[in-house]
Amino acid sequence: ALLACAFALIGAPVLGCEELVHTGLQGPPSMATLMLVAVGRPLFSVAVAGLLVLCSCGCAPRVSEFLGAKAWKPLAALSYSMYLLQFVGWGFFGRLWVPTAGALVGALGERSAPWRVALAGWPHIGAWILADVPLSLLCYLLVEHPGMELGQRLVADAAPLKSSGEAPGHGMPPADTASGFGCCGEDVERCLLIEKVAPTDA
What we know:
The chain is mainly alpha-helical.
């Protein structure tokens, strides 16, 4: 799984970016480039899924410990906002393209090695991230995090209302919220038995 992830990441700068490929190679893409564009993303997805399975079943404890480190929590918190706003910062990102990956790609020619084309894309990715992080941070602080806190408060306020009402059935005592059962801590069959033998009003 790690080798597949590494293989896909090497070609990540050219995945789905035909303009970068044509500009860097100054001509039609090679068969290897076409194959990379076709299978790179599915391969990366399968590799990540396999890696998650290995971590969840305890087969890769070191990788699981590395991915679960506290240092990744800020990035994990921003991940969804970065996904939503990845194209919003395109105007600012375009200005970063010229002095970074734009200059590197412009220096490439027909005989440039594929690994040079791939490496030229990494400043492209870095510039995109730099443009995306500030907007994502604002979105997380002003929208996402307050929304999650509001949802937690609503759920916490609704929980006592569900557990404080009377149990279903005539003549049954109120629910025992401390034990988590619906009839004074008894199991469901006993509650149904009490409901069955309870006297009815004349």
